[in-house]
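We modelled the chain as a single entity of 221 amino acids. Its sequence is:
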Amino acid sequence: MVNEVFASEETVALAKQKACDMLGVSEDQVEFEILQHPSKKVLGMFGGKTAQVKAILKKSVAQKAINYLKEILFYMGFPELNVDILNETPEECSIKIDGDGLGYIVGKHGETLDSLQYLISIVANEKNKGKNFCKIRLEAGNYREKRRKVLENLGKHLADKAINFKKRVDLEPMKAYERKIIHTSVDKIEGACSWSEGEGERRHVVVAPKEKEESKEEIED
């Protein structure tokens, strides 16, 4: 696919339009470099120059994210890993890494994967300046799906335990999206409830019998 063209016309505006027609895109999808401004002929006969522009297709947020991710993976020693865009919209895109050695990419409880997701999201959205921010979701193999199922089962198991032993159960600190999975899972078990306690990195889920609900803090997750 052609992503760079040169065009010349009588005016800069016409040259830009010609370049867009050559690329088959609208002007807002292109970055322009004016190589030459037009000038009139002397006495209508001598000299004179046409406008010349260079047009380059803008990279999407997902493409920027993938380029930066591949660079990181190269320096991590995993240049052979496959990186693909699963879906892409202006508001959100999903990227998946596949191949050998994914355990190093995921890290403990997905910490490395989350860090990579954060880094590529910042770099890919750098020029958006808070506007039209595209949320990037990064997956490695099927880690996040497997982790979700583990947390759902854990929530159900601890809900049953809290009901049977009639006491609260405190989980280890978790990220906000993981706490939400636990809350949703516990909410499906009649007679059990859950809430979050702690601040910052110590914030964790508490699962308890329904009668202890009056002692919970407001759920902020």
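As a brief sanity check on the tokenised model: The helical segments are 12-23, 61-76, 102-106, 111-124, 143-165, 176-187. The first helix runs from residue 12 to 23.
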